[in-house]
Design goal:
heterotrimer, A: mainly alpha, 77% helix, globular, C: alpha+beta, 4-stranded mixed beta sheet
Chain lengths: 271, 290, 366
């Protein structure tokens, strides 16, 4: 294929992908369209930030964004911390029952949330953790932790088997070898896994909807689902709220895409 | 001695994670099974063991079978369309020579969104009078369908929204697999005089097949568990035409107050997912030995 | 409380003045009933004394009473005091012979109609749904009238309310006197079939199957329909200066009576201040307070003595409580998809009710 035709084809693919993203772009456009124009069903002549102003100043969404950030960061940190500690022996040490444990971990990434939500609800209720971040972090751990372990085991297996040996030869103990040799080598993979986990915890809906009762702990997806509309449905405001609730995921995809893809592929093609 | 110390060290490291994991995954699953054998209404303090009564009712509950039917249709249609579209997009991406990063970013945007955002977006697009879908339909002379309110259209509308957000994942995985196919394979084919379509049929697709199987199973898992999109977009309506097993389980658990019956439905979902996951793992192992 | 001029803060400050040493904090809950209900369930289950007095939707009183979350008020709220309220509001607050809440504000389903159109034909307002359907079909098409009868058929609580009103018009109900489900299935199926027929016969437009209070009100308020079933709040909006139907709308009772809506006040069983809480409940439900609230927010008092218009009084007297059972949530959640299936034509009405009955027999425990 000639160079010009190749460039044209490449542009065509990009255009097709942009077309595919139309729903999202439409929501973005709606969020910038004044109410009167939306009601009239016309193309906007001038863009306006009024919906964003309303959402930021008058809706529960800003607080919900804060809740989402807090819960997602803490859940990811917890999953990463515990996950690294568990992944290392599972990947590179002679842990008894290793195969079985790995199988259990992999299977538990597939657990449907609907199956675990009722007992977790009873636990949250019994512990008096209703309407708190702790309840959500706990519930999110049910998928974040196994996911982290699975991904990290994959990344650890990629590292050269003799990596620790070199450290032992130098007289380092096991813990030191872990800290100074394995962890730095694992860092890029761990970052990719953390990104993916953060994304999934940010987007999580079922647990967040069931365990929260007020704005004190409602996350962004729940706030968006319950977006106030006493009489009329405020499509413009909802569109603005949607874009805001989707910002961290969008930023991750655009800015940190390489790491994200790495995490995605690691989880899906390996075993 | 090294081995024993290593085992102890490993156990020590792994213990916290495994304990937490057990507490938030294994324990709830056991508890759900136990709940499904009870008549349990927490707010009224009702808690009686009734054996398999919930499951017996489930087998003759028309609402359950409706949810099962909707789930089967949803999963098969969704996964089939995603795979077809995803492979096509992967092939196009594979031939892409420049701006791959931009292409991937554009591709992943629909996938990364919270399900609620996708639901609200499509709710607006499907609006009967002011929605984009309606405007397009009017242009094509198809009138003004009530996408989410018409029982004959609602499931298709839901499937379209779900395919939109999940196809990128399929495309990405197939694309990664395509990258792993050595260039020499294609060179050999062109030397033999094979055209594009023939190459596709005889070489690319067979090499993609194992990945496609795994992706299909993986996506089936996700489709079986999907909740946020349909909950916010249709709530299972109209008339339960979009009520999947997951939504039906939720309604039984938290809207009809019967935790026991809801647990039985959840267990069914769990078993279906477990069976699919086991198939996925077996396929993965078969693929690894290829 | 919805509405701009919220009278509650003023009332609470007045209460504090009358009871020195007591301060009252009001917390407004989110607007949607489902969200309010979830809030209450999560907080009351924890048996915490987070709040003392709660405003409950009429359909929650029996459930909360059975769950042990609210105080038995039978002794404080004696027979004489109860007689000052509409009987249906007391029925809604009674479980097992005990009274658990005090009626605060009231709503009743009623029929709005275009009196100008009916007057032109010399017709009186319909007293049965058959008559309503006939009149609607005859008047449809004249002078901008696109639709005959608008009601709420979206799959939510409103649908149950509308269908219940059809049941009542034909003389049956969802629960029998001894709590049996659908005591007269044939009659109930006929009532449900009549609702479906409204759509297939063109009495009602297809949009009712996705319509709630606001969608239907908006359509009627634009002058597009002859009849509307809705709550009383809409009248003020129809009589607003810029309304296209100003001066042309009248109200009458629904055939068989309208459903009771509104809210009661109850006391948290875990309260540390039962006496003060009871004083507050008594204060907020006395005639003066109810009148102020009614005037400000478009809801009505629960005391017949406060009604000036005899027509309105008789409509409110005809209010019927929805089935008073702790299982109302279960009942409604099970009925909604089945009723929706019937009115959208997915299932024949008889089968929809049969399926509902089967499920309810399993789920409704004594």
């Amino acid at each position: 294929m000639t160079r010009e035709r190749r460039v044209a084809a490449d542009v065509a693919v990009l255009a097709a992908l942009a077309l595919y993203a139309t729903p999202l772009l439409w929501q973005l456009l709606t969020s910038l369209t004044p109410d009167a124009t939306i009601a009239a069903g016309a193309w906007p002549r001038a863009l306006s930030l009024e919906h964003y102003r309303v959402v930021v100043a008058q809706s529960p969404l800003p607080r919900a964004l804060g809740n989402s950030a807090g819960v997602a960061l803490i859940a990811t940190a917890l999953a990463a911390g515990l996950g690294v500690l568990a992944a290392y022996p599972l990947a590179r040490l002679a842990l008894p029952g290793r195969r079985l444990i790995m199988l259990a971990v992999v299977l538990s990434t597939a657990f449907p949330a609907i199956a675990t939500v009722a007992p977790l609800y009873l636990v949250v209720r019994a512990l008096g953790l209703r309407d708190t971040w702790a309840a959500l972090v706990l519930a999110d751990a049910s998928f974040a932790l196994p996911l982290m372990i699975w991904l990290l085991v994959g990344f650890l297996r990629e590292l050269p088997p003799a990596l620790e040996e070199a450290a032992f030869v130098d007289g380092a103990g096991r813990v030191a070898a872990l800290r100074h040799v394995i962890l730095p080598a694992l860092a890029p993979g761990a970052a990719a896994a953390a990104l993916l986990t953060f994304l999934f915890t940010w987007n999580e809906f079922l647990f967040a909807y069931t365990f929260t009762a007020t704005e004190a702990s409602r996350t962004a997806p729940v706030a968006l689902a319950l977006f106030p509309g006493v009489f009329e449905v405020p499509w413009g405001d909802i569109a603005a709220a949607s874009i805001l609730a989707a910002l961290p995921p969008i930023v991750i995809v655009i800015v940190l895409q390489r790491h994200l893809v790495r995490g995605l592929l690691a989880g899906s093609l390996k075993d | 001695m090294i081995a024993r110390g290593e085992r102890r060290f490993g156990l020590l490291l792994a213990a916290p994670a495994l304990l937490v994991l057990g507490a938030v995954t294994l324990y709830p699953v056991a508890h759900v099974l136990a709940l499904s054998l009870q008549r349990r209404v927490p707010i009224f303090g009702v808690a009686d063991w009734v054996g398999l009564a919930n499951y017996a009712f489930l087998t003759r509950d028309p609402a359950f079978w409706n949810a099962a039917r909707v789930t089967v249709v949803f999963v098969i249609a969704s996964v089939a369309v995603e795979l077809a579209l995803g492979v096509a997009v992967a092939l196009a991406l594979h031939r892409q020579q420049r701006w791959r990063a931009i292409a991937l970013a554009l591709l992943l945007l629909p996938w990364c969104l919270p399900g609620v955002v996708t639901a609200r977006t499509f709710e607006w697009i499907y609006h009967p009078t002011s929605g984009l879908a309606g405007a397009v339909a009017r242009r094509l002379g198809a009138g003004a369908p009530n996408w989410l309110g018409d029982p004959s259209l609602s499931l298709a509308a839901l499937i379209a929204a779900d395919v939109w957000r999940t196809m990128p994942f399929v495309a990405l995985l197939c694309y990664a697999r395509l990258l792993g196919i050595p260039g020499e394979v294609y060179e050999a084919a062109t030397v033999d005089g094979a055209g594009r379509a023939a190459t596709l049929r005889a070489i690319t697709l067979p090499l993609l097949a194992p990945v496609l199987l795994m992706v299909a199973l993986f996506r089936t898992l996700d489709a079986l568990r999907a909740f946020d999109l349909m909950f916010v977009l249709t709530g299972g309506g109209p008339a339960a035409t979009t009520e999947t097993l997951a939504l039906f389980a939720y309604r039984s658990l938290f809207q009809t107050l019967h935790l026991g019956y809801g647990a039985a439905v959840s267990t069914v979902v769990f078993v279906l997912v477990g069976a699919t996951a086991t198939l996925y793992l077996a396929a993965g192992r078969a693929d690894a030995t290829r | 409380m919805p509405g701009e001029r919220d009278p509650l803060p003023a009332l609470l400050r007045e209460f504090e003045r009358l009871h020195p040493g007591v301060t009252v904090q009001a917390e407004a809950l989110p607007w949607t009933a489902d969200v309010q209900h979830q809030f209450f369930v999560i907080n009351l289950e924890g048996r915490s004394a987070g709040f003392d007095v709660l405003m409950l939707d009429v359909i929650w009183v029996a459930e909360f009473a059975r769950a042990g979350w609210i105080l038995d008020l039978s002794d404080r709220f004696d027979a004489a005091a109860r007689a000052e309220h509409f009987p249906s509001t007391i029925t809604a607050a009674t479980l097992n012979g005990r009274v658990w809440a005090v009626p605060w504000v009231m709503n009743v389903g009623l029929l709005y109609y275009r009196r100008d159109l009916l007057a032109r034909r010399g017709w009186a307002a319909p007293t049965t749904y058959e008559e309503l359907a006939r009149q609607a079909l005859a008047l449809r098409g004249e002078g901008g009238i696109r639709e005959g009868f608008l009601w709420q058929g979206k799959q939510y609580e409103g649908l149950v309310v509308n269908v219940l009103e059809s049941f009542w018009a034909l003389g049956t109900d969802v629960l029998g006197p001894s709590g049996d489900v659908l005591p007269d299935p044939a009659l109930a199926a006929a009532a449900l079939a009549q609702r479906r027929a409204f759509i297939t016969d063109g009495v009602s437009p297809a949009l009712v199957t996705a319509a709630d209070e606001e969608v239907s009100r908006r359509e009627f308020g634009a002058g597009a329909a002859v009849f509307l079933r809705n709550w009383p709040y809409a009248l003020a909006l129809f009589e607003a200066p810029a309304s296209p139907v100003r001066g042309r709308v009248a109200i009458t009772a629904l055939p068989g009576g309208g459903a009771l809506g509104g809210a009661h006040l109850a006391i948290n069983a875990a309260t540390r201040y039962p006496t003060q809480a009871w004083e507050l409940v008594r204060f907020l439900t006395r005639p003066e307070a109810q009148r102020r609230i009614g005037d400000a927010v478009g809801l009505h008092p629960t005391r017949p003595a406060l009604f000036e218009s005899p027509a309105l009084l008789s409509i409110f007297r005809g209010a019927r409580a929805r089935p008073v059972t702790p299982w109302y949530q279960t009942l409604s959640a099970t009925l909604q998809p089945e009723l929706s299936a019937a009115i959208t034509g997915v299932k024949p009405p008889a089968r929809a009710l049969d399926d509902a009955r089967g499920r309810l027999r399993y789920l409704l425990l004594p």
